[in-house]
């Protein structure tokens, strides 16, 4: 509070540079306070509150939220795990990739699908060999996410395996295949 009170008058400084620095400093202070509030909700809240707190961590962003997201991604509760995985994709920090890759081995299709979708944010061609096998899931969820992820990565050599999915019995997979094919160069 004292730091904020010390900075507030600088918002009216005659120099633009000082006003901008003060605004940025206040944003940082508010983010730090918000982070503490989010941690508290994660500790004490019910499941819905915890999931909301995980998404709030994504809004805060930065490497400082990674340890908590890694912990949540390892939890047994599927909704908490999936929320953390999705946010790890949104923050797009390379340190999250190994954790997301580990989630590809999870038995729950919802978790694997969330991990594939999260990895698609990284658009890394090195992920192609790891994601390609998921096109054969034939479940309307994991295969659809794999198709979209591969489309986002954008390797033209993926057209053939993606074209096979347009005849899937699953509506979601067919739609994902069409979208993925349109994303390829």
Present the secondary structure layout:
Layout: H1 2-7, H2 16-44, H3 47-60, H4 66-73, H5 78-91, H6 97-103, H7 109-120, H8 128-131, H9 142-153, H10 159-163, H11 171-183
Helix pairs in contact: 2-3, 3-5, 4-5, 5-7, 6-7, 7-9, 9-11
Task: Report on this structure.
With 185 residues, the chain is an all-alpha fold. Helix 2 runs antiparallel to helix 3 and helix 6 (97-103) packs antiparallel against helix 7 (109-120). The chain contains 11 helices and no strands. It has helices at 2-7, 16-44, 47-60, 66-73, 78-91, 97-103, 109-120, 128-131, 142-153, 159-163, 171-183. The termini are far apart.
Question: What is the CA–CA distance across the termini?
Answer: 52 Å
Query: What's the story with the biggest beta sheet?
Result: none
Mean pLDDT: 92
Q: DSSP helix count?
A: 11
What structural class results from the helix and strand content?
Answer: mainly alpha
Secondary-structure element order, as H and E? Answer: HHHHHHHHHHH
Low-confidence stretches at least 5 residues in length (pLDDT < 50)?
none
Cα shape: elongated
Query: How much β-strand is present in the residues?
Result: under 5%
Helical percentage:
55-70%
CA-based gyration radius: 21 Å
Q: How many beta-strand elements? A: 0
List keywords for this structure.
single chain, 185 residues, mainly alpha, 67% helix
Q: In a few lines, what is going on in this structure?
A:
This protein is mainly alpha-helical and 185 residues long. The chain has eleven helices and no strands. The chain has helices at 2-7, 16-44, 47-60, 66-73, 78-91, 97-103, 109-120, 128-131, 142-153, 159-163, 171-183.
